[in-house]
Amino acid sequence: MGILSNTSTYAIRAALYVASARLAAGDFMSTRRIAEDLDVPFPFLAKVLKEMVQAGILGSQRGPAGGVSLARPASQITLLDIVRSVHGDEIFASCVLGLPACDNEHPCALHEPWRVQRAQLESLFVKTTLADLVERAADDDAPLRAPGRSGDGRGRRRNP
Prior knowledge:
The chain is 48% helix and 9% strand. The chain is built from seven helices and four strands. It has a two-stranded antiparallel ribbon with strand order 1-4. A two-stranded antiparallel sheet has the order 2-3. The N and C termini lie far apart (42 Å).
């Protein structure tokens, strides 16, 4: 289990997967293929990707040649952009214990330590771009797909 929700994790993984494909202009990656390769439930991923499209991180096209692609260069998309597209500022504003009354005036037992960690996490997310992650994944041969999955980009679709 991580600090990020499944929604945030799937959003980051999907964006990294699409960015790593280095699609040509007019190409789209099949949403179903992304879900299969990342071993993410298709209906859930479709909802996440829709939120990312609405936030201007991804572009989309419907139909047999449809799917998603980056709406702007990976160097212009930060992790903070991705997380905000699916959660707003919730991760950086809410109580780590989920207590609705927790704030600076009425802090919970973890408020101060989480405030410090949250600021560091937000700083990391502001500084880290999708292009940074693509580069690290390529340099480290980091896995992008679920274990046992292989792919060679067949999920790409060309827009006629």
